[in-house]
Write a structure and sequence with these properties.
There is one protein chain. The chain is α/β, with parallel strands linked by helices. A hairpin with a 2-residue loop joins β10 and β11. It has a single domain, classed as Purple Acid Phosphatase, chain A, domain 2. It starts with a strand and ends with a strand.
Length: 248
């Protein structure tokens, strides 16, 4: 049994090279008994179950359905660019959509996997915006809009977000990098102290990892990073002592 974790691909279209790599990963590596965790921001924009998005990424849905049919499980954690997705995946075998995190127990090991956008508890502006985007009124608003409008508005919002809040893959002052990295590492340490063996996060695009020993218990934190730049995903198999990186 193998566990594969992918996040922050920010796929912008069907011709995107990381999209082709994701399809190949699902098709060739994810087999019966395996678990694929898609940990948010797989797409740069995918909101609701609009036909426009489902047709744009038809191959993705076909490969997810095929993986489920051959006995693999898919856990999709919504990010800040892809959310309100439950109806989009309705009817697909062995696919579960989560709003914030996935908790797994495999071979006696406990895994905490989240997109990571809720790690910084002091980012009140983002938390308020996130709550608004996941509210029932906003869901109704998205449902009523034509797909082309959602696509246009969403892409404009994504560009604004990238300009206003660059992640660690961009050039940031050293003090901001250190603060954000310490925030994520501290969050991971808290989860390991709660009994988790592995903590996997994304969102901040930081290719970071750290091993802990807390009260005599070892634990590992690892961030997926930013695959369009770093070109990797995470994997773990039964018997492995740590989560590793593989080329995407």
């Amino acid at each position: 049994m193998s566990l594969f974790i992918v996040s922050d691909l920010h796929i912008r279209g069907a011709e995107d090279s990381v999209y082709r790599s994701l399809l190949d990963l699902i098709r060739t590596r994810v087999q019966s008994g395996d678990i694929l965790v898609l940990a948010g921001d797989i797409f740069d924009l995918f909101v609701g179950d609009k036909k426009l998005f489902r047709e744009r990424y038809r191959e993705f849905f076909d490969e997810i359905a095929a993986a489920g049919a051959r006995g693999a499980s898919v856990e999709y954690i919504e990010g800040n660019h892809d959310f309100l997705l439950r109806r989009a995946f309705r009817g697909l075998p062995r696919v579960t959509v989560h709003s914030s995190e996935v908790l797994l127990r495999l071979d006696g090991r406990r895994f905490f996997i989240a997109h990571g956008d809720l790690v910084d508890s002091g980012d009140y502006t983002y938390r308020a915006l996130r709550a608004t985007f996941r509210s029932a009124p906003f869901h109704a608003f998205v449902w009523a809009l034509p797909g082309q409008w959602v696509d246009r508005i969403g892409n404009r919002s994504s560009r604004y977000s990238r300009d206003q809040k660059p992640k660690l893959s961009a050039s940031l002052p050293t003090e901001k990098i250190e603060r954000l990295r310490n925030t994520y590492r501290s969050f991971a340490a808290e989860k390991i102290a709660q009994g988790y063996d592995f903590v996997v996060l994304g969102h901040c695009h930081d290719l970071d990892e750290m091993k802990f020993s807390i009260d005599g218990r070892p634990g590992q934190y690892i961030n997926v990073g930013f695959p369009p730049v770093h070109g990797s995903f995470l994997s773990w198999s039964s018997g492995d002592e740590s989560i590793g990186r593989e080329r995407l």
